[in-house]
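FAQ

Q: What does a record look like?
A: Structure on top, sequence underneath. For example:
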């Protein structure tokens, strides 16, 4: 079962994510240009590595912006689960780009250290100003992206937020490396001249660390691995599902994430004698339980008909019949000589030949004996169910029959009144329908006994009536 947001409700998260992603792109572009220009003017590998890192950020931010634009599109014929995986794909591309920049920075830094090339830098305050500005910008957009990612469950924005938080530490490393290098040049300390490429190596190590974490999360998402926090949620979810009235067992709970959306697949054991209406109620309760743990999740519930320990012999017999889509009623079970004898009524279409009806009954009785070995004998009364709508020749009330029915009811103190009496005549058959009022707290066994006794008494008094149908009502529901 899926839930669909209204257009105005869906527009707000998309606009917030789009705004955050666009802000990230603009900020990344400005910072990258400043770092590149400063690195070229000073010859600092640390600044150039930071410029490369920020260039990767710019590409990643652009990909994130594109993925946010696409991921919120609704499901269509080609993408039944929506477009949320595009966010994971953008994170995978960002991982490859970050790894490539890391390899370039390491290669260049090691080359400068081993061959002592380009170690002399042109002193300038610009690198310090640019790096401090970069740290400020990274801190601002990291906080904004992190807040939007948490609010709207965006994997792409969360990846950017983590990335930019590590940029702060990388910028600090370059800042310290530049300060040490300038100090070494000014005070003629050869060891400090290596501070700039060493800072670049530190930056590449930070990039590699972030890349590893991002790659692991991305691969897990693309392969539908269940995160640890989701597994913890599933444990609580299984407990909540097992407490739903009507759920006998929780056979399987599977969840997957696609972008900001969750999908849940449940398999629940339910009593096999449930009605469709009750089964739907349990399904709705299970869906609500999932969405309490995973808001907005698309939930599919598969039910397994299960025999419960509370089933009676009557329930088990009806379950066997229901499995074959057969309607039985008036099931009676007697025990003698330590064996069970079953009597039941089966309705079949009035146009069905006797041979086909008998074969149907034979198969049903065989299934009952196989599923309920304690049943020794079965007697099935075959009844024809009308296949057409009968058209009565008269719907007039018969006053005399109504009087005789009310008089018969007076012999039963449980029956408080008789009302809505309707007499119909179809060809040579007379049928009487009525409603009767009984006490609210009267057990159904006594209700059935009273109604059956009234039917028998009335038919003795009015043998011309072929059928009497009585609908019982509690006194509190009788507004007459």
């Amino acid at each position: 079962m899926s839930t669909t947001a209204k257009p105005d409700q869906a527009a707000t998260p998309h606009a917030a994510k789009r705004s955050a992603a666009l802000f990230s792109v603009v900020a990344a572009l400005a910072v990258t240009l400043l770092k590149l220009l400063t690195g070229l003017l000073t010859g600092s590998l640390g600044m150039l590595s930071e410029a490369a890192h920020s260039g990767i950020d710019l590409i990643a931010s652009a990909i994130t912006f594109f993925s946010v634009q696409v991921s919120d599109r609704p499901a269509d014929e080609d993408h039944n689960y929506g477009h949320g995986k595009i966010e994971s794909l953008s994170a995978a591309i960002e991982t490859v780009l970050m790894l490539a920049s890391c390899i370039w920075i390491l290669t260049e830094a090691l080359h400068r250290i081993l061959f002592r090339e380009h170690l002399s830098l042109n002193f300038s305050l610009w690198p310090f100003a640019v790096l401090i500005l970069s740290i400020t910008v990274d801190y601002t957009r990291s906080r904004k992206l992190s807040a939007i990612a948490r609010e709207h469950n965006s994997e792409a924005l969360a990846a950017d937020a983590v990335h930019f938080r590590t940029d702060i530490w990388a910028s600090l490393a370059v800042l310290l490396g530049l300060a040490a290098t300038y100090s070494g040049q000014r005070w003629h300390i050869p060891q400090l001249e290596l501070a700039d490429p060493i800072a670049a190596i530190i930056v590449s190590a930070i990039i590699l660390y972030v890349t590893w974490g991002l790659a692991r999360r991305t691969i897990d998402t693309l392969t539908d691995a269940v995160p640890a926090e989701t597994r913890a949620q599933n444990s609580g979810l299984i407990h909540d599902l097992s407490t739903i009235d009507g759920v006998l067992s929780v056979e399987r709970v599977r969840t997957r994430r696609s972008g900001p959306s969750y999908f849940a697949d449940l398999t629940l054991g339910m009593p096999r004698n449930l009605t469709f209406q009750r089964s739907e109620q349990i399904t709705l309760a299970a869906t609500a339980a999932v969405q309490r743990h995973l808001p907005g999740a698309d939930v599919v519930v598969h039910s397994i008909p299960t025999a419960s320990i509370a089933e009676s012999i009557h329930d088990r017999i009806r379950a066997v019949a229901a499995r074959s889509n057969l309607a039985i009623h008036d099931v009676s079970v007697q025990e003698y000589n330590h064996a069970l004898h079953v009597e039941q009524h089966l309705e079949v279409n009035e146009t069905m030949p006797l041979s086909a009806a008998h074969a149907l009954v034979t198969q049903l009785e065989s299934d009952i004996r196989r599923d309920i070995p304690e049943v020794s004998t079965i007697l099935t009364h075959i009844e024809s169910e009308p296949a057409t709508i009968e058209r009565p020749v008269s719907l007039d009330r018969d006053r005399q029959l109504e009087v005789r029915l009310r008089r018969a009811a007076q012999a039963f103190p449980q029956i408080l009144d008789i009302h809505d009496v309707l007499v119909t005549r179809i060809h040579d058959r007379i049928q009487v329908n009525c409603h009767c009022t009984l006490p609210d707290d009267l057990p159904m066994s006594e209700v059935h006994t009273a109604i059956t006794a009234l039917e028998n008494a009335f038919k003795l008094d009015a043998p011309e009536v072929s059928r009497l149908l009585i609908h019982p009502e509690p006194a509190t529901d009788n507004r007459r």
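Q: Is there anything notable about this one?
A: The first strand starts at residue 249 and ends at 258.
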